[in-house]
Amino acid sequence: MKVVIPGGTGQVGTVLRRALTGAGHEVVVLTRNPRSGREVRWDGETLGPWADEVIDGSDVVINLAGRSVSCRYTPANLQEMMDSRVRSTRVVGEAIAGATRPPRVWLQMSTATIYAHRFDAPNDEATGVIGGDEEGVPRYWGYSVEIAKAWERAQENAETPSTRKVALRSAMVMSPDRGGVFDVLLWLARLGLGGPVAGGGQYVSWIHDRDFVRATEFLVERDDLEGPVNLAAPGPLPQRELMRALRAAWRVPVGLPATKWMAELGALAIRSDTELLLKSRRVVPGRLTQAGFSFEHPEWPEAAADLAGRVRRGRSGTPIPA
């Protein structure tokens, strides 16, 4: 199977590329800065030779392109997030529409951030509340939701009648790779800073990297599934419980709590944004579960123990497995 991954050089792309290549598939990455024979140049905005070279004749396209959310949410950065996601999705759709032999499925990255900040009930695809007009939250959080909606709309509007389309409303993908979200959380825990933030009641949705890969493969094979699909473990949990389980997995006895203003200072220091810490993302995998997908790591304490063990083995010289 030939799989094309636009924007596949980040953490999630690395996870997918490693696993799919290990399974014997041909994987081609579209990137602005190709560094190997299986990477092809594109600019993420305009059609070019890459369309005929890699999209035409491929079996699957998994578009991950878009500016990283790990940054300060300034107006300029938010606009860049919007533009990079919408433009790359639009041009992928144009390439698929123009292909003589289009791929049979297009998996388009989206985000669980599209759902409302809430504590009362989980968000699935059928009954979940789309965010953007919640009271008592910073106004710019609404723009993050607008980005997610525009991202999905760009795929919906693409004229690709021969290609099934799925929007991956992904929670945070937890992998042991350096620089990923689990690596950052583990770093905080090891420093003794892995306590509750602003009380820690906000929900965190997540998915183990192996379940992310398995769910992606599941969606490729299930011809009856299209449209938005939540990629999140069935066990979202409050931030204070998530960090408590992570500390236990790494055998860290305490984690200092942080107030909201302390979190803002910390986010400023690492050039990130407090929305990533403070928004309550209580998202569950309604469609995946109904379709019969079974998670290997449905609950966080066991998943954290597995990931921590892989980090230890990787740092002792044993390669992180696919």
UniProtKB/TrEMBL annotation:
<dbReference type="Pfam" id="PF01370">
    <property type="entry name" value="Epimerase"/>
</dbReference>
<dbReference type="InterPro" id="IPR001509">
    <property type="entry name" value="Epimerase_deHydtase"/>
</dbReference>
<dbReference type="InterPro" id="IPR010099">
    <property type="entry name" value="SDR39U1"/>
</dbReference>
<dbReference type="InterPro" id="IPR013549">
    <property type="entry name" value="DUF1731"/>
</dbReference>
<feature type="domain" description="DUF1731">
    <location>
        <begin position="271"/>
        <end position="307"/>
    </location>
</feature>
<protein>
    <submittedName>
        <fullName>TIGR01777 family protein</fullName>
    </submittedName>
</protein>
<feature type="domain" description="NAD-dependent epimerase/dehydratase">
    <location>
        <begin position="3"/>
        <end position="224"/>
    </location>
</feature>
<dbReference type="InterPro" id="IPR036291">
    <property type="entry name" value="NAD(P)-bd_dom_sf"/>
</dbReference>
<dbReference type="Pfam" id="PF08338">
    <property type="entry name" value="DUF1731"/>
</dbReference>
<comment type="similarity">
    <text>Belongs to the NAD(P)-dependent epimerase/dehydratase family. SDR39U1 subfamily.</text>
</comment>
